[in-house]
Amino acid sequence: MPAEDGIAEAAAVLRAGGLVAFPTETVYGLGANALDARATARIFEAKQRPSFDPLITHLADVADLTGLVGPVPEAVAALAERFWPGPLTLIVDRPAAIPPIVTSGLASMAVRVPDEPSARALIAAAGVPVAAPSANRFGQLSPTRAEHVVAGLGAAVDVVLDGGSTRCGIESTIVDARGEHPVVLRLGALPVEALVEAVGPVTVRPGSSGQPVAPGTLAAHYAPRTPLQLVDGVDPLAGGGGRRGLLAFRQRPAGGDWAAVEVLSPSGDLTVAAARLFDALHRLDAAGVTAIVAERVPDVGVGRAINDRLGRAAATWRGHR
Ligand code: TXA
Ligand code: MG
Asked: How is residue 109 annotated by DSSP?
């Protein structure tokens, strides 16, 4: 149902221990009452998500942070003030009110305030913090439209709020600012450059192992069902042999016999490219092509997060060959 019309009903479903998929500015989330261990257990079931992969807790308002977790380190508070509501997830100590299943047993907790009015209205109406990973099956393409959620999770979700296409199209940037220097655990919709401008130097540590630090940073993740190859520029002569699909950054190459082509941004706007990334991959995945060739984008701003996601999708398929 349309997001605005369904908020009261969806909030009641959350309070009753149900699952609600809802739009945020990044991707659609699969939400449950974060204070309710049984409700959050249903998220792991619906997504077929391993229990070692912790969830992000979503709040309606910046002011709700200290209400839930108490005092936070100065740098964490400063980032929250500066970038919330917005596509930034911060790491804090897990408060006692949040059951350990939400954080996969970690003493820390990921939290953010999404910059999407209907999402904040939903959380406020529910009156509880909302644990929500991306609303897709574990390891698969992230959902940027309600149709992606329904196709991927279907009956496992009690309510799907439809807010159209999400604005950013790529997940939040995750930062641990509890130590001396902020550490970026996952590249995302908030560019590293914006963080540096606000707080000075940061360390980017895209973990690549199976450590429970940030499985969104597992080497293999965000994968289409079709084998994907990441290239540094499309060789116009190589082409698709009539059976392969192309994810191009700015333009369709003149030559080549591609079965399907998606262009992310003809003007070369990386923000536009990020917003279209997963939708384009969902379409290529449904196009019946034998392989997807994806062109790397410039490695600046949100382009770093785009390349990060494409690299992990490609890594998934390297593992299968
Ligand atoms: O934009 C987003 O962040 C979306 C929307 C729905 O808010 N959510 C999202 O959730 O991307 P998910 O579950 O797909 O990715 C959350 C990431 C995972 O890689 C998880 O490991 C990491 O956050 N994470 C959660 N708690 C953590 C913690 N305490 N320490 C480090 N990483 C954590
Ligand atoms: Mg995810």
From this structure: E
Q: Which CATH class is domain 3-204?
A: alpha beta
Task: Provide the 8-state DSSP code for 102.
Answer: G
How far is CA 43 from each of CA 58, 112, 124, 152, 265, rounded to the nearest angstrom? 14, 18, 20, 13, 34
CA atoms within 13 A on the CB side of 199: 25
Count of helices and strands (H, E) across the chain: 9, 14
Ligand with smallest separation from the Cα of 174: 1
| C-alpha 262 – ligand 2 centre gap (Å) | 23
Is residue 137 very low, low, confident or very high in pLDDT (cuts 50, 70, 90)? very high
Atom 32 of ligand 1: nearest residue by CA position:
214
- Using CA positions, which residue lies closest to atom 20 of ligand 1? 214
- What are the backbone dihedrals phi and psi of residue 222, each rounded to the nearest 5 degrees, phi first? 55, 40
Going by pLDDT thresholds of 50, 70 and 90, the confidence category of residue 4 is: confident
Instruction: For residue 283, give the amino acid letter.
Output: R
Q: How far is the CA of 119 from the centre of ligand 1 (A)?
A: 17
- Domain spans of the chain? 3-204, 228-318
**What is the mean predicted confidence (pLDDT) over 66-91?**
97
Asked if the domains at 3-204 and 228-318 fall in one CATH topology, the answer is: no
Share of the chain above pLDDT 70, in %: 93
Burial (CB count within 10 angstroms: exposed 0-12, middle 13-18, buried 19+), residue 93 = middle
Given the structure tokens 């839930």, which residue do they identify?
68
| Ligand nearest, relative to CA of residue 40 | 1
pLDDT (tens digit, 9 = 90+) per residue, 166-182?
Answer: 999 999 999 999 998 99
Q: Which residue's alpha carbon is at the smallest distance from atom 10 of ligand 1? A: 133
For ligand 1, whether the C-beta of 109 sits within 6 Å is: yes
> Which residues crowd ion ligand 2, with CB under 5 Å?
134
Topology (CATH) of 228-318: Rossmann fold (3.40.50)
Q: Is 59 in the pocket of ligand 1 (CB under 6 A)?
A: no
Residue 57 in contact with ligand 1 by CB distance below 6 A: no
